[in-house]
Amino acid sequence: MRDTVLPVTEPVHVGQARSLATTAARDAGLPSATVDRIAIAASELATNLLKYARGGLFAITRGPLGLDLVAADRGPGLRNVDESMRDGFSTTGSMGTGLGAVRRLADEFDLYSRLGSGTAVLARWLIGTPHWRGVRVGSVLFAAPGESVSGDGWTAVDADGLVTIVLTDGLGHGPAAAAASAAAIGHVAADPGASLPVMLAAMDEDPASSRGSAVALVQLDLARGTLFFSGVGNVTARLLGPGGTRETLVSVPGIVGRRQRRGRRADPLVRPWSADSWLIMHTDGVSERWNAAEWPGLLGHDPATVAGWLLGQHIRWRDDACVLAIAGGEAS
């Protein structure tokens, strides 16, 4: 299954959201009763986007914990979240109808809303068990208009307590950009215990990567409470810590996969990492002009909700886009 983000602006998009969610659930091997629940939830979420927020985005993601549906908008927001969960609740000033039903249909449910800014809703159906030492990752992935596949991509792997996460943005759009991203991601999956400089060197020397990618690489050494970061090209990474601390982790200019390593710093950035730390990364299909301090309470929510909220607020709509929200972890 490919992760999908569907803009919801017309009634026909409600049926499309339901169809895409049904296909994703079947592809994930979920039982028919669960597939039916997911289809109903998709219809409810997309209908709310259209009716109460006058449009937004509907995302389907096969996440690390299961199948995620995320609806995000820039609508009026919810004045009373608890009241909005009651069956039949509906006002033209809020997104309410069906949210209580969606919460009952899903295995996990999360919602973040700000008056005057919008709402992000997560409904999740669990598949398997968590496997990244308590590191939580949420994502949303958007393909540029007119493309069937996104040139952005990501993966996360665990090598004995060393969790490595890569976000890639293949140059251009479409299948060729997706292939460039996949080539870079493949080196992380093939040798997850390697250092970041070794991984970047392998990506650079890959003869299959003729187009190249922008890349952000992160390693979390949970036993030492340490984050290592290396970025090349136009990928944003912001570290958010306890007490509102924040830092942009600076990437170096360039393209990975074209043997253009001259002038790059050899050593990764090193920062503390704890169970309360967050790292938000995104490609250039999302505006950098955001400040988490303007969204009180957001980091108390699921990483998938955080990723959906950020994409919903700052997507550019004309380019591939991917947001990763990474949080916490447990010492080995």
Automatic annotation (TrEMBL):
Query: What residues does the PPM-type phosphatase domain cover?
Result: 135-328
Record's keyword terms, sorted:
Kinase, Serine/threonine-protein kinase, Transferase
Q: Which domain of life is it from?
A: Bacteria
Pfam families, alphabetically?
A: HATPase_c_2, SpoIIE
What CDD domains does this protein map onto?
HATPase_RsbT-like
Q: Name one GO molecular function term.
A: protein serine/threonine kinase activity
Question: Which InterPro entries does the record associate with it?
Answer: HATPase_C_sf, HATPase_dom, PPM-type-like_dom_sf, PPM-type_phosphatase-like_dom, Ptase_RsbX
What PANTHER family does the record point to? PHOSPHOSERINE PHOSPHATASE RSBX
Any idea what this protein is called? Serine/threonine protein kinase
